[in-house]
User: Which sequence fits this backbone?
């Protein structure tokens, strides 16, 4: 790989070097900026840049190191952090991926951003998303597409696609994301990085529009499990400032403990697995890739057995619950949408208005049944593994794959049951990179744990990550940076054209 540059360091290592005085926050930031300027033209991940302000903050972070006796350094002191463009940033443009918000400069940080800043993190810029963050392909009419760093003609997933690509290409050591039906996990799996969807309520979400729901979880992304846990420990902090809304789902929690993961002995780990959660739409190719990895994982763990998972109703329940969420979230704005507004949102909202309330109520009852049956599995298993996404990354010009094998995909969520069904039951899940598939594109696993046991899930994921690192088939893949600097990509202009075509079709 050659000489390790500051931007190549993972967050935990970089933070330790800063603490020791062996790495300057200014040096780290400039290395990340250099990487952005070299790589981002090919992938279009960091669509809003805050370099001037970041440089000023890096200088202040460096100066603070000389006065550390008088100041306790934050957990993220001096670390550049990329922020998903769904999350408002004070003084930095926040567009939500929508042209109508291109000039929006918030006066206040979102809660998750305020915690990053309070911990010493430096906002380096904003990452691309689908319009208003709905969709598993990062494509919008304002900024265009974000390309997969392993093949820029392919999707990076979504909706936290820009964040995943920024991490995979070493533009920043940490990034924020969010997860509705897979928006953290899908891009993590497609780009070879780590994402954690926590138990709802672990990370406070002050802008929640429904009091109690498993949807709309804010969360961390990193290159490693330890990095992701570090960021989780920051964004899960319980701080309530005057004038800021409070998340009614945020329960008492020692957030600091999330960064100190247990040393799990894999020889004692009881692992369950399922290819399709009992009946989700999953391609034969992904099933084969998953089986191939199970064969290599089996000797590493205490036991590996098929888990009797039955989330076959997950897709239908998700679609109905999504109807409830979408009307609550968008009914104040729907009359102002233009014809080209995100077709995924319009499809969900239109369907919701035609859905009888009784159907939604029955889905809520079924959701509890699914939760109880799945949670009971953890009497026999410590964690359960399944594939992260049902198909290999497809071309970003398509909003979603039209078929899985020969089965038509009836709506933009039908191919996402592997992640959406886990949203329905609300269990914590870590997306972990697991080598490359036959196309040379990243393959990822979901590691699912018992509800509220986020630290245990992350600890198990870290132990698996460590074991995978010594296996060239399972180790986290790296993009070819030298190649990306030469790519003539049309992600931006071609992506805007594709987004316009998708919106008008």
Assistant:
């Amino acid at each position: 790989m050659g000489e390790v540059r500051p931007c190549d360091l993972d967050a935990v290592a970089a933070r330790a070097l800063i603490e020791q005085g062996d790495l300057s926050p200014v040096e780290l930031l400039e290395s990340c900026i250099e990487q952005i300027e070299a790589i981002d033209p090919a992938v279009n991940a960091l669509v809003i840049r805050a370099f001037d302000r970041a440089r000023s903050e890096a200088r202040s972070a460096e100066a603070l190191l000389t006065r550390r006796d008088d100041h306790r350094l934050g957990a993220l002191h001096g670390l550049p952090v990329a922020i998903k463009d769904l999350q408002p940033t004070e003084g930095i443009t926040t567009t939500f991926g929508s042209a109508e918000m291109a000039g929006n400069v918030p006066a206040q940080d979102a809660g998750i951003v305020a915690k990053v800043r309070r911990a010493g993190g430096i906002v380096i810029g904003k990452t691309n998303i689908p319009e208003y963050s709905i969709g598993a392909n990062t494509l919008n009419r304002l900024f265009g597409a974000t390309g997969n760093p392993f093949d820029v003609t392919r999707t990076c997933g979504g909706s936290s696609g820009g964040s995943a690509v920024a991490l995979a290409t070493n533009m920043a050591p940490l990034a924020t994301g969010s997860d509705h039906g897979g928006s953290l996990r899908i891009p993590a799996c497609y780009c070879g990085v780590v994402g954690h969807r926590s138990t709802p309520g672990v990370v406070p979400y002050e802008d929640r529009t429904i009091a109690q729901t498993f949807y709309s979880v804010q969360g961390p992304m990193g290159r490693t499990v330890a990095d992701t846990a570090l960021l989780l420990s920051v964004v899960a902090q319980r701080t309530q400032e005057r004038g800021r809304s409070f998340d009614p789902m945020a329960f008492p929690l020692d957030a600091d403990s999330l960064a100190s993961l247990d040393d799990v002995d894999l020889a004692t780990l009881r692992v369950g697995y399922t290819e399709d959660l009992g009946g989700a739409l999953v391609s034969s190719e992904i099933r084969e890739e998953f089986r191939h990895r199970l064969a290599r994982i089996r000797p590493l763990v205490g036991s590996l057995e098929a888990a009797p998972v039955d989330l076959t109703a997950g897709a239908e329940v998700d679609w109905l619950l999504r109807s409830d969420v979408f009307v609550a979230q968008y009914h104040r704005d729907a009359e102002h949408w233009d014809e080209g507004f995100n077709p995924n949102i319009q499809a969900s909202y239109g369907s919701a208005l035609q859905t009888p309330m009784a159907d939604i109520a029955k889905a809520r009852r079924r959701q509890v049944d699914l939760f109880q049956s799945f949670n009971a599995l953890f009497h026999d298993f410590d964690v359960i593994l399944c594939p992260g996404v049902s198909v290999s990354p497809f071309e970003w010009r398509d909003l979603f794959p039209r078929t899985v094998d020969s089965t038509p995909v009836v709506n933009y969520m039908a191919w996402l049951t592997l992640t959406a069904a886990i949203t329905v039951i609300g269990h914590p899940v870590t997306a972990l990179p697991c080598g490359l598939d036959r196309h040379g594109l990243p393959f990822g696993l979901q590691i699912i744990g018992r509800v509220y046991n986020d630290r245990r899930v992350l600890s198990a994921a870290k132990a698996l990550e460590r074991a995978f690192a010594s296996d060239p088939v399972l180790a986290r893949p790296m993009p070819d940076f030298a190649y990306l600097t030469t790519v003539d990509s049309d992600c931006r202009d071609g992506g805007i054209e594709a987004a316009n075509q998708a919106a008008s079709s």
Observations:
- Residues 184 and 393 are 15 Å apart (CA to CA).
- Residues 6-311+365-504 form a domain with the Amidase signature (AS) enzymes fold (CATH 3.90.1300.10).
- The longest strand covers residues 429-436.
- The two ends are 45 Å apart (CA to CA).
